[in-house]
Amino acid sequence: MRIMGLDFGSKTVGVAVSDALLLTAQGVEIIRRKDENKLRQTLARIEELALEYEVGEIVLGLPKHMNGTEGERVALTEEFKEKLERRTGLPVTLWDERLTTVAADRIMMEAGVRRENRREYVDKIAATLILQGYLDSRSR
């Protein structure tokens, strides 16, 4: 069994998957959609990936504000969580994702990725950071 990590955005979903020992997270892909409200194909792709990687649990980034309050994005994420659970039949855990996008951007900057190319990878790296944080917390 593996765990899948997701960074849910308005037009993209970054996807990461753990190794079989649940120690490390690896970025898999970024699912893109044209309309924020069109989730059917996104959910179908996540379901395909969950089957392919033999996923038993999903960790979904929860986008709280820096002061801990919840905004509009949190409500959309909670709706997405319910849809994921119905579609996949897997438990979905919400995980605080504050600063993961900032950290992902910093990682790419340090790696020398040009600013205009960072948008292409940031969601996958953020999903990896969300999942790795969750895996690390489980091992403590």
Question: Can you walk me through this structure?
Answer:
It is a single chain. This protein is α/β, with parallel strands linked by helices. It has one domain (2-139): YqgF/RNase H-like domain (Nucleotidyltransferase, domain 5), CATH 3.30.420.140. Helix content is 45%, strand content 25%. It has five helices and five strands, in the order βββαβαβααα. It has a five-stranded mixed beta sheet, sandwiched between helices. The longest helix is centred in the C-terminal third of the chain and has 18 residues, at 122-139. It starts with a strand and ends with a helix. The relative contact order is 0.24. The model has no long low-confidence stretch (mean pLDDT 89).
What's the structural blueprint in terms of helices and strands?
Elements (H helix, E strand, L loop, with lengths): L1 E7 L3 E7 L6 E8 L7 H13 L2 E8 L9 H17 L3 E5 L3 H11 L4 H4 L3 H18 L1
Helix pairs in contact: 1-2, 3-5
